[in-house]
Amino acid sequence: MIAARRRRRLSGALLAVALLVLTACSGTTTTDESGPPAVQPEAGALPVTIDHRYGSTTITDPPSKVVSVGYTDHDALLALGVTPTATTRWFGDYPGAVGPWARQALGDDPVPTVLDDTNGIQFEKIAALEPDLIVGLYSDLTREEYDTLSEIAPTIAPPPDQPDFGTPWRDVTTTVGRAVGKPAEARRLVEGVDQRLAEIRADHPEFANATAVVATLSEGYFLFGGDDPRSQLLADVGLRLLPELDTLVGDRFGASIGTENADVLDTDVVVWLTDDGGAELRRDPLYSTLRTAKEKREVFVNNNDDFGNAFSQVSVLSVPYVLDRLVPQVEAAVDGDPSTTG
User: Fold this and answer.
1) Closest C-alpha to 323, from 208, 228, 195
2) Which pTM value belongs to this model?
3) What is the CATH T-level fold of the domain 3-181, as seen in this structure?
């Protein structure tokens, strides 16, 4: 789980070589006239200039081949009716990296090419696809990587005010919507999910009095910070994030704490990302003394199933899918009765 965020990077020298290769190849490739049709933009939506951490990018024409190097950006594209040419795999081994929460949006369109960034961004593979737009909002895109991708096609990096892997799903959706010329549709999509969240908060006023945190076992107890989309989803359903979370995590998406700080887990709800349903936690003599464990104020999310993958890949399409299972489990955890289950 945590290692998925720590992909190895190409050195500056290798990036330079890749850039030379791409530049050399650009004169010999031809556009496939039978490729996908361009997006039909809303009236007056293009051209548009989008600011990001490395400056700004202007999109003048409706794109037809969009590559997603952001880990969740392709869900926003699909929700907007734009089938990406390529996606970046993150959670799950799904065809085209399209999870079950997004399959209906894909429909009968061709399955996207999947990029594997384990050893760095696949620049040559992306260049061969001849994209006219590259989106990398939910990512840790570096300046070197951005510069190289920009030689291939207009590229959108993460927002200037967000940490790596910290762009909220709403911002991913609306920014992608602007980039493909569908800003009004993007806002409608966000408003639809927000309406569902408002209904949950109204139905569960008890959530407003409950503190919560998302955690996993990694070098002790790993806490996901307040800017992490998973933590934000708990806040969206009405829970209060652990007050000292930002102090413990800082400006990172998360951080490990030692066993001497285990008492911070004594909250009203802990959402655990696990591979074993909590078996290792049950063997932890320190954790077992906490009220959280004794009263089973826990929600266990399996890292390896569709629900767990959707919970971590927070997007405009995955959130409704997650809520159907998450809310009943949170309700059972909040009541403090060990006999209730969600």
Assistant:
1) 195
2) 0.88
3) Rossmann fold (3.40.50)
